[in-house]
């Protein structure tokens, strides 16, 4: 279950659990729905687990596509080095900015 909240003009979506093949379809729908319905000017996925699976990367990529469709910037906060490394190795960090923590992700570009 997601508990998104707004900080200034950003919709922050905290992710506490690993995204895997079991929960990816449901999270994909939830993330897309949040992006489609938000009045915020940008979306930040606050990905807190250390492990990021391929299913998780795919959900983030699909969420990015939904955000692009609405002309919303999407960023990811990933405090764990391993999660940031997976985003780099898969090339996902070329689609959206990846930040080492939430305060950095909330800073203006």
Topology:
Layout: E1 5-7, E2 10-15, H1 24-37, E3 42-47, H2 54-69, E4 74-77, H3 81-89, E5 98-99, H4 102-106
Parallel strand pairs: 2-3, 3-4, 4-5
Antiparallel strand pairs: 1-2
Helix pairs in contact: 1-2
Please provide a written account of the structure.
Helix content is 40%, strand content 19%. The chain is an alpha/beta fold and 109 residues long. Strands 1-2-3-4-5 form a 5-stranded mixed β-sheet. Strand 1 (5-7) and strand 2 form a beta hairpin. Helix 1 packs parallel to helix 2. The longest helix has 16 residues, at 54-69. The protein starts with a strand and ends with a helix. The mean pLDDT is 96.
Poorly predicted regions are none
* Major pleated sheet: 5 strands, mixed
Could you estimate the helical fraction of the residues in percent?
Answer: 40-55%
Mean pLDDT: 96
Measured on Cα atoms, how large is the radius of gyration? 12 Å
Number of E-type strands: 5
Biggest β-sheet: strands ordered side by side in the sheet: 1-2-3-4-5
Indicate the proportion of strand residues: 15-25%
Order of helices and strands: EEHEHEHEH
- How many angstroms does the end-to-end distance come to? 30 Å
> Which of globular, elongated, flat, extended, rod-shaped describes the shape?
globular
């Amino acid at each position: 279950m997601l508990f998104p909240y707004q900080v200034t003009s950003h919709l922050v979506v905290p992710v506490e659990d690993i995204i895997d093949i079991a929960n990816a379809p449901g999270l994909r729908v939830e993330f897309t729905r949040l992006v489609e319905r938000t009045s915020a000017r940008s979306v930040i996925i606050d990905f807190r687990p250390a492990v990021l699976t391929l299913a998780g990367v795919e959900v983030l990529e699909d969420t990015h596509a939904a955000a692009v469709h609405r002309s919303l910037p999407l960023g990811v906060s990933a405090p764990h080095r391993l999660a940031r490394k997976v985003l780099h190795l898969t090339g996902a960090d070329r689609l959206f900015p990846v930040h080492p923590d939430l305060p950095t992700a909330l800073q203006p570009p």
